[in-house]
């Protein structure tokens, strides 16, 4: 991706005196965007606690593609070395996630029919911190996912499966 020095406008909701209003923010160098990748994984865990190899491969493909485009990307799965209940405590993982969201420009979120408590927590925290959020949905959206999207004026990008999510997310970023 070439550096063109283009400017894009991003509308970010800002809480002011009890009402949600929009503040116009501009960003000049998209190649340096900090991205937090929020993906569900508890339904894709092997008996030893590791993430299924096929799922890990797809998420790594997305991480690599985003990084090749010049973005700095954080993914909790990668941080925990692709294992649920790895070498860090859940409290340490949450503190790390929150610190990363504090320093991110955008959250890229994968939603599924089965609601992920971790994804929703990350999504809600990012919303409270007025971060740009990009939502992708596999299958029929759960009520809470639809409500969240409508609440903050986000469109949910429908994807067929994880492969399609990787393709779409790379196309949009």
Short summary of the structure?
With 173 residues, this protein is of the alpha/beta class.
Gyration radius, rounded: 16 Å
Separate helix tally: 6
First-residue to last-residue Cα separation: 10 Å
Which CATH class applies here?
Alpha Beta
Q: What is the level-2 CATH architecture name?
A: 3-Layer(aba) Sandwich
List keywords for this structure.
disordered N terminus, 38% helix, 173 residues, Rossmann fold, two-stranded antiparallel sheet, alpha/beta, 6 helices, 7 strands, five-stranded parallel β-sheet
Tell me what the structure shows.
This protein has 173 residues and is an alpha/beta fold. It has one domain: Rossmann fold, CATH 3.40.50.450. It contains six helices and seven strands; from the N terminus they run βββαβααβαβαβα. Strands 4-3-5-6-7 form a five-stranded parallel β-sheet, with helices on both faces. A hairpin with a 2-residue loop joins strand 1 and strand 2. Helix 1 runs parallel beside helix 6. The radius of gyration is 16 Å and the shape is globular. The N terminus is likely disordered.
